[in-house]
Design brief:
Elements (H helix, E strand, L loop, with lengths): L2 H26 L25 H22 L2 H29 L9 H22 L3 E4 L4 E4 L2 H22 L5 H19 L3 H10 L2
Antiparallel strand pairs: 1-2
Helix pairs in contact: 1-2, 1-7, 2-3, 2-7, 3-4, 3-7, 4-5, 6-7
């Protein structure tokens, strides 16, 4: 069993333990789902369902990545560590935007949560910072699998394209999350596929984050 597989199992166990600890706490302090009255009537039955479960995934990612960070610090190169930290930063940054949204909904009792323009602004800033890191440290080359060619884009075009992909993907997941169970099932399939591709293409940073997230 290689270390990536071990980390996957560790992160899975961590998630279960965190869920057993955090979900009862959320129930105890009455952090429950608040449904808008202008949506489907069938969704009103979800009122009060424990939410903010994203905390479990954020903490799980931090712990699992921390373990892998120490492993790479000892046995692998600094380059790997420098590449994985921005990926974690992107995930945590988006998680914090979601946390602010949930805080407004659950603590401040504002069913609309964070205004869409502010949410998009936060995601835009985080995405742009991440892509600027990519451009500076990795470059602007894009591989097109269908034609099996690699092209190098001008920096500004690459930044605009990459940010659009990240924001589009993120908001697609948000829309999918409106249907119970659909987001998790769809994302599990996609993340598993991308993780396998990353392993086959020897992109350990993406494979690592994918292994943690797919749990």
């Amino acid at each position: 069993m290689n270390f990536q597989t071990t980390i996957l199992l560790i992160s899975f166990v961590i998630s279960i333990i965190l869920a057993l600890i955090i979900i009862p706490i959320l129930k105890k302090i009455k952090i429950g789902q608040i449904e808008r009255d202008d949506g489907p009537q069938s969704h009103l039955k979800k009122q009060g369902t424990p939410t903010m479960g994203g905390i479990i995934f954020i903490i799980g990612i931090l712990i699992s990545t921390g373990v892998y960070y120490l492993y790479c610090k000892i046995f692998q190169t600094e380059a790997f560590i420098q590449n994985i930290i921005p990926l974690v930063g992107l995930s945590i940054g988006f998680g914090l935007v979601g946390l602010i949204d949930d805080f407004k909904k659950l603590i401040l009792k504002n069913t609309k949560g964070l205004k869409p323009k502010y949410k998009m602004l936060g995601l835009l800033i985080i995405s742009t910072l991440y892509i600027m890191f990519i451009v500076k440290n990795i470059g602007t080359a894009i591989f097109i699998p269908i034609f099996k060619i690699e092209i190098t884009l001008p920096k500004i075009i690459y930044i605009l394209f990459a940010v659009l992909v990240i924001l589009g993907t993120t908001n697609a997941v948000n829309l999918t999350d409106g249907v119970d169970g659909l987001s998790s099932s769809v994302c599990a399939i996609i993340i598993t596929c991308l993780t396998v591709i990353a392993m086959l293409k020897s992109v350990p940073e993406v494979a690592m984050i994918g292994s943690i997230s797919v749990r």
